[in-house]
Design goal:
The chain is an alpha+beta fold. The chain contains two helices and 18 strands. InterPro entries: Ig-like_dom, Ig-like_dom_sf, Ig-like_fold. Keywords: Membrane, Signal, Transmembrane, Transmembrane helix. This is Ig-like domain-containing protein. One of its GO terms (biological process) is motor neuron axon guidance.
C-alpha cells in the first residue's frame, strides 16, 4: 500500500503552476488618458494604451461612461468598430476611433463623468484590465466677472467691501481677489454658495471681500484691486480696477475739510495737493488764520484798514459835534 504525499511534496508543484500562470499573462501596462476638462462644443480625444506579449492577441477594447458601454473595438469582427446608443447623446467619430483612441464630437455638458477603458486579451488567457479617468465639460461664462460695492476713493483705515460675481457657467467659476497682485488672505474673503439657474442648469459664483485699507496698499496714490475668474484651463478672465487714495484737502487754517487738524508738513500731504487762495475751501470765516497761512498777511492788512477807517469816522463825528456845540452857544449869547 503506497504512502500519501506529504504537504511539502504538493507545495512545490503549486508554486510552479502559479509562476507559469504569472509568466503567461501577456497583457500589461494598460494606461488611459482622459482630458480633465473640455470646452462645450469641442471634440474630446480619449486614449487607451496597452502592451501585449508576442504570443498574445487583442480580443477587444471597450469604452464605458459610468457603467454603460458606448464604444467597442473588436479586430476579429466585421465591422470592427461598434457604437452603442446606451449612453444618450454621445456622438462618436467612427473614422477617427480605433483600438487606441475614441473621439467624441461636439461634447455637451452631460458628457461630464467617469470614462473607463477595458482591454481584453484573446484566448487562451482572456486577461482583462480596466482603467478609468474623469472628464468635465465646461460651459464658460459669456461675460467678464463684475465687481460691485466699491467706493470711488479710500483712505487708510477705511473698510473696503465689495463682491465679485461670475455669471452663468458650468461648473461655477473659481474666484480670487488680489490687491497689488498679492492674494487677499482667506479670512478677509467670503465665498457664497453658487446660484443655480433651474432652467439652464448654469451657475453663478460670488466672492466677497472685507478688508481694512492700509497706507501700504497705495502705490503712487492708487490701489490695484483685481478679481480673477477661472475654470480649469479652459476659462480665465480678470477684471482690474485702480482706486485712488482719498487724501484730505487742506484749509487755510491747517484744518481738513472734515474738521480734523492737519500738519501741513506731514509727508503724506504733498505741496501740489494744497488748494490755492481762490479755492472755496480757503476761508477765514470762523477760523483764526495760522501765521504760516498764505492768507494771514492779507487778513492782517484788512484788519488794519478797518481800524483806520473807524478812527477817521470817529474823528469826523467829533469835529461835527464840536462845531454844533459852539454854534448853539453863540446863538444863545447873541
Amino acid at each position: 500500500m503506497g504512502t500519501l504525499p506529504s504537504v511539502m511534496d504538493l507545495r512545490l508543484p503549486i508554486l510552479w503552476l502559479l509562476l507559469a500562470a504569472e509568466l503567461s499573462v501577456g497583457l500589461r501596462n494598460v494606461r488611459v488618458t482622459v482630458p480633465t476638462a473640455v470646452r462645450r462644443g469641442d471634440s474630446a480625444h480619449l486614449y487607451c494604451e496597452y502592451e501585449l506579449e508576442d504570443n498574445e492577441r487583442l480580443y477587444s477594447i471597450k469604452w464605458y461612461k459610468g457603467k454603460r458601454e458606448f464604444f467597442r473595438y473588436t479586430p476579429q469582427v466585421h465591422p470592427s468598430v461598434q457604437v452603442f446608443s446606451t449612453v444618450s447623446g454621445i456622438d462618436v467619430e467612427r473614422s477617427l476611433s480605433n483600438e487606441s483612441q475614441v473621439v467624441m464630437r461636439a461634447v455637451e455638458t452631460n458628457y461630464s463623468g467617469k470614462y473607463s477603458c477595458e482591454v481584453s486579451a484573446d484566448a487562451p488567457s482572456f486577461h482583462t484590465i480596466i482603467v478609468s479617468g474623469d472628464m468635465e465639460v465646461v460651459d464658460p461664462p459669456i461675460e467678464q466677472p463684475s465687481v460691485t460695492g466699491l467706493q470711488a476713493r479710500y483712505r487708510p483705515g477705511d473698510i473696503l467691501r465689495a463682491n465679485c460675481t461670475s455669471h452663468n457657467s458650468k461648473p461655477a467659476a473659481n474666484l480670487t481677489w488680489t490687491i497689488n497682485d498679492v492674494p487677499i488672505p482667506p479670512q478677509y474673503v467670503k465665498l457664497y454658495r453658487p446660484i443655480k439657474d433651474s432652467y439652464t442648469g448654469l451657475e453663478t459664483s460670488i466672492l466677497g471681500v472685507n478688508v481694512m485699507v492700509a497706507h501700504d496698499h497705495f502705490v503712487q496714490g492708487k490701489l490695484k484691486l483685481k478679481c480673477a475668474a477661472s475654470i480649469h484651463q479652459i476659462y480665465h478672465e480678470v477684471i482690474e480696477q485702480f482706486i485712488p487714495e482719498d487724501r484730505p484737502r487742506i484749509l487755510a487754517t491747517g484744518v481738513s475739510a472734515s474738521g480734523h487738524s492737519i500738519n501741513l508738513y506731514q509727508g503724506s500731504v504733498h505741496e501740489s495737493e494744497l488748494t490755492d487762495q481762490s479755492d472755496a475751501y480757503l476761508t477765514v470765516n470762523g477760523y483764526k488764520a495760522d501765521k504760516s497761512s498764505p492768507l494771514s498777511s492779507s487778513s492782517g492788512s484788512l484788519q488794519i484798514d478797518s481800524y483806520v477807517k473807524v478812527c477817521w469816522v470817529t474823528f469826523y463825528i467829533c469835529i461835527i459835534c464840536t462845531v454844533m456845540v459852539y454854534s448853539i452857544r453863540y446863538l444863545m449869547v447873541t
